[in-house]
Design a protein that fits this description.
Elements: E1 15-16, E2 24-25, H1 28-39, E3 48-50, E4 57-59, H2 72-75, H3 79-97, H4 106-110
Antiparallel strand pairs: 1-2, 3-4
Length: 117
């Protein structure tokens, strides 16, 4: 993947802004705009920030998409609730990954989520 400069994209096409009943589904027009930008390699030329828990790179801008849609935390009105939910999901990942640690390199282990306190 590194030698061929392969890009991997993770796109939230579902729920954002809070749990069921609080948040909302991401509008299809934004999902389409993000996918189009990926296919047209437009996201290769924007700035990125690192997610504080998951370590993923999040684009700062994407044509035809409000910037807050690109930030999971900004979509939630309640920071405490966001970090509680994000940490719970990270903890589930950490616990599940213990089943596979013996197969992982140090580089892979270092790439896991970091709980935010």
């Amino acid at each position: 993947m590194e030698s061929d400069d392969v890009k991997i994209w993770m796109i939230n096409t579902g729920w954002t802004g809070g749990g069921f009943g609080v948040g909302e589904r991401i509008q299809r027009k934004y999902t389409r705009a993000i996918i189009t930008a990926i296919l047209e390699q437009k996201l290769n030329y924007v700035g990125y920030r690192t997610h504080s828990i998951y370590g993923t790179q999040i684009p700062l801008t994407c044509s035809q998409v409000p910037s807050q849609i690109l930030s999971p935390r900004e979509m939630w009105k309640d920071d405490v609730a966001f970090y509680k939910q994000a940490n719970e999901l990270a903890q589930q990942f950490i616990e599940n990954f213990k089943n596979f640690e013996s197969y992982a390199t140090e580089e892979i282990l270092a790439g896991g989520p970091k709980l935010k306190v």
